[in-house]
Write a structure and sequence with these properties.
Length: 140
């Protein structure tokens, strides 16, 4: 069993921002030399999230609209009342989506669907420098 670790660094603009990181993740699979195994992508921080979706203009509008329905920016959040940082909704949204994603590696490839991309979601209210940790475990 072999392991590989790497990073993806992103400069974000603040919410809502959806960044396609598929090619960067695939680059780490290639760099790892792993033929069969798993890759995990994890964001450090509690106001970012990682998932998959079809990265197309309609969904780039639909997802932020859905965020407004299930965790509206203007709702009252105890986090904001305590810290006065205006990002209580950001923490709730990130917790629901999650900070990581694990994908199988088969024959040195990610078996993503035809329209499936890996995305980072910037959910904080301000621009951030994000560090995504990439770990690959498997057989060469």
């Amino acid at each position: 069993m072999t392991t590989y670790s790497g990073e993806i660094t992103l400069e974000t603009k603040g919410e809502p921002q959806i960044i396609d990181i598929t090619s960067e993740v695939e680059g780490h699979v290639e760099s790892s030399g792993i033929k069969s195994g798993l890759i995990t992508v994890f964001v450090t921080g509690s106001t970012g999230a990682i998932t998959t979706l079809e990265y197309e203009p309609g969904l780039l509008k639909d997802l932020p609209a859905a965020f407004e329905r299930f965790a509206p920016r203007e709702a009252v959040y105890e986090h904001h009342l305590r810290w006065q940082d205006g990002n209580g909704h950001s923490h709730v949204r990130a917790a629901i989506i999650g900070p990581s994603l694990t994908i199988p590696i088969i024959k040195r490839r990610l078996p993503l669907g035809t329209w499936q991309q890996i995305v980072f979601l910037e959910l904080d209210v301000r621009p951030r420098q994000r560090k995504l940790i990439v770990q690959v475990i498997g057989e060469k």
